[in-house]
Design goal:
It is built from no helices and seven strands. The chain is an all-beta fold and 98 residues long.
Amino acid sequence: MEPDSRTPSGAHRLRLLNQPAPVELRLSEGRPAALRDPRRGGWRPVERVEEVWRLEDGWWRERGLLVRTYFRLLLAGGDLVTVYQEGNGPNWWLQRYS
């Protein structure tokens, strides 16, 4: 009997892509100025804020409204990262490192 081709092999090993991770930022006037690099260690200055957007979603959910402000940052050395802050809380999250 052949295995069912519709069943993914190794499904127990699936993981989320771009799962956010906590990250430390230094701010200047409320905007990211430097990021503690989780890959290289140490602080890396933000050369430029490439994009900023705000997400307000889930007003219909029991848990309430999800509010995040995202920043796509160009770091010294050329790496692009996407970070976000939930509401106005103190914690920042690294969403994508490209």
